[in-house]
Amino acid sequence: MRVGLFVTCLADLMRPSIGTSTLKLLENAGCEVIFPMTQTCCGQPAYNSGDSENAKRLAKKLISEFADVDYVVVPSGSCAGMIKEHYIKLFESDKEFLSKSEWLGARTFELTDFLVNVLRIENIESSFQGDITYHDSCAGLRELGIKEQPRKLLSKLQHVAIKEMPGAEQCCGFGGTFSIKYGDISGRLADLKCEEVEQSGADTLVLGDLGCILNIEGRLRRRGNSKTKVLHIAEVLAGENLGDETPK
Amino acid sequence: MEITSHQFKKTASLKLRDQKVQSALGKAKGKFVVARERAVKELDNLEEIRQAAADMRSHCLENLDSYLEEWEKNATAKGTVVHWAESAEELNSLVVEIAKRNNVKKIIKSKSMIGEETGLNRFVEGHGIEVKETDLGEYIIQQAGEHPSHIIAPATHKSKDDIADLFAEKHQTPRLDDIEALTREAREILRPHFLTADMGITGANFMIAETGSTVIVTNEGNGRMTTTMPRVHVAISSIEKCIPTLDDFALINRLLPRSATGQSISNYVSMTTGPKREGDRDGPEEFHVIILDVGRTRVLGSDLRDALRCIRCGACMNHCPVYQNIGGHSYGWVYPGPIGSVLTPAYKGIENALDLPNAATFCNQCGVVCPVKIPLPDLMRKLREKQFMRNLRPFAERLGLKVWATLAMQPFVYSILTRTLARIGKLIGGKKRYLRKFYLVGSEWTKQRDMAAPQGRTFREIYGERQNLSKKEDVR
Amino acid sequence: MSARENILSRIRAANKSAGNAGSDSARVAGRLSNPVLGPRPNLDWDPEEQFIRKSVASASTIAQTDSMENVPGLVNQYLTESGLPRSGVCWGEFSQLPWAENEIEMEFRPATGDDKVGVTGCDCAIAETGTLVLLSSPDQHATSSLLPETHIAVVRKRQILKTMEDVWGFLRERPSGLPRQVNFISGPSRTADIEMTLVYGAHGPYRVHIIIVND
Fold it and tell me: Chain C: nearest CA to B27, how far in angstroms?
């Protein structure tokens, strides 16, 4: 099974441990992982800013980079959603790329969805332990139906208890460029999410999107909370980056 | 209503820091969201009903001219006088004409958002005719000289104490502390007006083509009074409110009250077809309906047309995390929240509401609850696109996007740049591994948040090294 | 060209530009003559039980009897227990019932602002939502269920239909078509406009008492 890995521009730059964790999970499950070295961005920032010309250019590039795989796995609900749900909208009047987008979209999966529904992973071995709470990133939840998959995977870990937040599905306020255009409102939403996290009693917040991670973690630290860990689900499942070391 | 959407950012910031507004918004969120969830559980086939409602509304829009003609034919046959208006001024003038022709000195009014759009009250009062809002929320804001902050609960931004002070001042009565008592006082103040008004003005939730009827869904009883007591009744509506049949109304009426207030049905549904009949001992002698088209046909012919399916339930704003924290007044015109972020630029000009479609995270909490499945984030994105194409975005933003896209198309340059940024970022982050302040780009981030420093290497280089290592091992 | 002509032609132009063929008159005519019954939720309940359940949930009170003759007695009981005056206005169809014998001063005319109690019948009722359906007519005054603080409604059990869609059949069969107003009433008037706090008795009745007659 040739599985293409789209690591996402944010993870590549800011937190490659998400990429190495994803790689480890896929390889341990027996996948042949292909990482097209020329990959950069799925085009979402341009798309959501109304710059559809540049969004199309980046989309076409990605489509050609992943033309020769059986699956594409993305450790991000919003980037996976961009490829699966929005490329077909971008190219709705371009017959050639519409059909390529449909082809690619059908093969693209967010990481936890892939592990549960395609690989049907039974065992996960991770050294991670503790009380966690899970934040449902908006694109993953509402575009791709990612809700049970991460929880199913986490429940396979022996020393992990999930303490759900009542507002787990509430937007954290990242929204891409929204966070730097409307910092006031974005900060307030992040604050509300932080309160929920702290009230849950969990010592780690786990989630599937780096944008949300940076947003919530950034607000936690500014509020004076240096204790609550914020980890990507790939890291938790692979047992990586649990102690803040840079991956080798 | 004048548009103040260009002040969105400033107003939103003020509202975020206003304790009173925050407390009111918190109460509203808890009630509306919880109530809707409970009410839709009664519909075991909710998604099927939503899809049927969306399809029915789309079908209406595709055949709108035919249904409006059918509606008019049936309404006229029952004695309704039908008027058409192409501008706010025309609608307002028609109302005053009807009032003057009938020697109207006092008008009672049941909620109408179209009336807000056209500034009806001020225009009518300017012609020396008294207008009394009778919906409690609308009455409160009329007394306060304010605009509604929500399309269902217009005074949601006001606290009980605000209202107690207001009533004591305006009614010249002792200040009351109890919500029931305040409601009772409003009832007693308004009751004589219901009995003595010459004309009643209502909106219309729907116009039913099959029967030539207009329908209003209400809870207080003022809608029924307004359509029954005065000798003249004028209903103001807009073209997209027309639906084909009574069955279509029953379908949509399962969703409207549940989505709006969490009720299985609103207290009163009043279906009016023509004026008083021969022998009736109550009801108006004249019934007029004014059908408005201001901006609707332009939107109908655009890629925003799905927004015209809207049935004005308010669910989108109730569930919107942005609206929940900044309230309706920030949006600067009649319709707040996600639907307002689409309709305001669509009806009042994109350049007059630049912030609205941008002040959204695209979480789609709105799209998921919309009873007629309007793809609100997609429509907001289309508006962002139009802004971009018309060069309405700030120079820095356009430059930033261009630079980003150009770099992202050049993998080699990109890989070097990102490698460098990762290292510099890590360095600046220091031992605590946090960046505290951005200057210029992204400064709004660090006003309220830290930014985790990059881990120091890019995934690309880590993977590249791993591949090189394993190649070396293969060679060995 | 009139505003009407302008608007209609703009609608047609807008729909054409959106890629539609324009209004499909056959489809429109078809839907108008054969209205589409949309999907409805699970209706697996007894109509009378559901009607009572939903009426109580919307803050109405219920009494039941098996004879119309008992209605004035039940009205007396309700008004006495609630501390309300035993007088009011009533629809003409109940004028032959023993009101005076049950110590109630009833007048058979539309309500004014001074009447405290209004007694009406109904044309039918909707079980799904606990709703009364009242058509306006020379004998069925709209004010009786609106102006008084107390509304008492007499519902015959056989008038209770399952859903709103079932009411349409009844309306469509009327030779005179729709009356001036069809009022769907589901409980006492209410508002939550002040701090989202529910209060009964906004502008309409404070209370609704429903007497179900199974005759």
Answer: 7
- Chains A and C contact (Cβ–Cβ under 8 Å for 3 or more pairs): no
In a domain, B210, yes or no: yes
Question: Nearest Cα to B135, choosing from B108, B115, B174, B158?
Answer: B108
Q: Is B318 on the interface with A (CB under 8 A)?
A: no
Give chain C's residues under pLDDT 50.
Answer: none
Q: Which residues of C touch B44 (CB under 8 A)?
A: 41-42
- CB-CB neighbors (< 8 A) of B383 in chain A: 50
Judged against a pLDDT cut of 60, whether residue A33 lies above it is answered with yes
Chain segment C16-63, per-residue pLDDT in tens: 987 776 788 899 999 999 999 999 999 999 999 999 999 999 999 999
The domain segmentation of chain C, as residue ranges, is 3-33, 47-213
Q: Would the CB atoms of C14 and B269 count as touching at under 8 Å?
A: no
ipTM, two decimals, is: 0.96
Last residue of a domain, one of B262, B279, B298: B298
A76 and A13 assigned to the same domain: yes
- Domain assignment present for residue A31? The answer is yes
pTM of the prediction?
Answer: 0.95
Q: Is the pLDDT of residue B437 over 90?
A: no
Here the tokens at position B357 are: 């479609």
Provide the pairing of β-strand A32-34 with B242-243: unpaired
Range of the domain at B449: 395-475
User: pLDDT for B263-291, tens place per residue?
Assistant: 999 999 999 999 999 999 889 999 999 99
CB contact under 8 A, B408 and A40: yes
CATH of domain C47-213: 3.40.50.10420
Tokens matching residue A109: 């999966």
Q: Is residue B359 part of a domain?
A: no
Would you call A142 and B445 a contact, using CB atoms and an 8 Å cutoff?
no
Contact: B452, A219; criterion CB under 8 Å: no
Query: How many distinct structural domains can be found in chain B?
Result: 2
Angle at B352 between CA B350 and CA B358, to 5 degrees: 65
**Paired residues of B201 in beta bridges:** B109, B234
Cross-chain residue pair B450–A218, CB shorter than 8 Å: yes
Domain containing residue A149: 130-238
Across chain B, mean pLDDT equals: 94
* Eight-state DSSP code of residue C159: G
Q: What is the pLDDT of residues B161-202, one digit of tens each?
A: 999 999 999 999 999 999 999 999 999 999 999 999 999 999
SS3 at position A143: helix
Q: For residue range A54-87, what is the model confidence (pLDDT) as tens digits? A: 999 999 999 999 999 999 999 999 999 999 999 9
Which residue, of B276, B298, B320, is where some domain finishes? B298
Average pLDDT over residues B237-245: 98
Structure token pair of residue C76: 């007396």
Out of A18, A218, A246, name the one closest to residue B452 (CB). A218
Q: C-alpha distances in angstroms, A167 versus A144, A171, A192, A199?
A: 19, 9, 9, 11
Q: What are phi and psi of B294, to 5 degrees?
A: -120, 105
CB-based contact B279 C4, cutoff 8 Å = no
